[in-house]
Amino acid sequence: MNHLKVRDLMSDAVVRVRGGTPFKEIAHLLQEYDITAVPVVDDEDRPVGVVSEADLLHKVWGGQDDDAAALHVRPRPAKALATDAAGLMTSPAICAREDWSVVDAARVMAQHGIKRLLVLDDEHRLVGVVSRSDLLRVFLRKDQAIRTEIVEEVLVTALGQAPSAIQVDVTHGHVVLSGRLSSRLEVPVLEELCRNVDGVVAVEFRPVRESDADEAAHLSP
Q1: Each residue of 51-66: pLDDT tens digit?
Q2: Which of 132, 178, 181, 221 is in Cβ range 3.0-4.6 Å of 167 for a Cys bridge?
Q3: Does domain 6-138 have CATH number 3.10.280.10?
Q4: The CATH number, out of the four listed (3.10.150.10, 3.30.559.30, 3.30.1340.30, 2.160.10.10), of the domain defined by the range 141-219
């Protein structure tokens, strides 16, 4: 399947900072642009880390477990003492390539439990950022576009079936397939291929009974 690429969905307007950017400037940027994290880049615009709201909060609570513990003198965590991006950032940054598919990006986000990925070009320079909400835009795809891809790419190209071999109906991303394939072993393959089409929410296969097929053939002119 021809999945959408990260470059098709990412935002290329990325607020970024350098390692020496002061704590308060970072806090102002997060508030001004209504973002929750900012990438830290080197002199060649290559990401070296990310500073998030969680990183800044170390300054607020200072790494103390509770108010009583705060009364005891003990070393504070490094991030609680940090004054610039280099000291505050989480490194390395989790990144994606702009030619990744939405499936690749979603998989990496899920594996790392993160909400966004920095996007790099072939030179590993920062060119954008893609978020969970960006990836979810594939589900805004029109039902007719989904149906056309299933017929042309799944039935005809991948499985070698005639376009009329299977009835394909798509409503709000829910795909209903009805008909008979040349082999029952192909049904799970057909369903899996349909699930991999961008914008598909669910797939249901409804086999046509022999009696139904015979009746349809009898009624045909």
Answers
A1: 999 999 988 766 555 5
A2: 178
A3: no
A4: 3.30.1340.30
